[in-house]
Amino acid sequence: MASHVSPGQKDPYLSVVVTSRNDDHGRDILKRTELFQRGLLEQSRRYQFPIEIVFVEWNPPADRPRLHEVLPKPGENDCLVLRYITVPNQIHRQYRRAPDIDLFQMTAKNVGIRRARGAFILCANVDLLFSDRLFRTLTERSFEADTYYRANRCDVPDDIDPRWDLDQQLAWCEANIIRRLGRNRRYKNINLELVGLQGKGRATKWFLDKMALSISLYWSPEKQLFHQLDCFACGDFTLMSREAWNAIQGYLELDLYSLHIDSLGLIAAAALGYKQHVFPPEACTYHIDHPRGWETLAPLDKVKFLTDRPALDYSLIQEVALHAFEKKQPFNLNPSTWGFSDLELEEFVFSPPSADPAKILSHSASSGG
To answer: What pTM, to 2 d.p., does this model score?
Structure first.
């Protein structure tokens, strides 16, 4: 695919891939996305860490402004490049469940993965803020090609004030965590949130972690590996090298709601022998909670949700994982053109003015597919 970035710019160390559309899904999506984008603009400027955000706009509504028209742009002193890649409605309509699922999240992220220029690629979501410790970890440029990286997701209320500066927002998030999703590497044999131990003392956590370890000794190596994967909310933060993403062929491109497809990405990486590294709890993402989020839905509301938007069942995920670990190979179910790599998609690029003589944007025509 032809480059749409200024020829003088070097490839970044890190690309951040996200996807969305301007349809107010989850309520106040533009507010949350603006918080996300302003946060990364500020942090990359503060630490002088050049990154690119590859923003895949899937099936944009015809009656609303495009995201690149309404979201913040890099300023004179920034060192972050914003790339907006559009997957048009005519591609979306090819999916059987297109009338019920407006955005095929994991396939959209594949579009970004195939076009990202970074040596390492982080797939994330647009309703996050990165803790300062997490962003400083990214700037250390110490990632290994044989490892995939995970960060805890801490849910916070959606009444965070966008008028606060970033330090105020992060301090507020740290003080107002609703729930924490993800592994704690100190207790790698249990998921603290899943078994209700987040608020318990260290001695209780240590004891139950050792109990879980003793039970797991009777399991097969494949089952042991599965139960140590950090799959909770892994769609919010999964980082690995570009070569690793290519080796697993990104996420499975299924005509289904995205639930658990992110877990399959970790499973594919683990099946190929990539090691898991979980950042410490303070190096976390803060997820701005919203009423339509999966974690906030009541059980019966989840049943209703999945009636219209079928998704993978978690018991099947475990079965698939054990098979992949035994065979030591990924799924190989995507086409060779996964991420629509054979198509030229419309792209808008926004660079800091000092890095881009054109000062505004570069724009390529769409082939549409």
So the answer is: 0.89
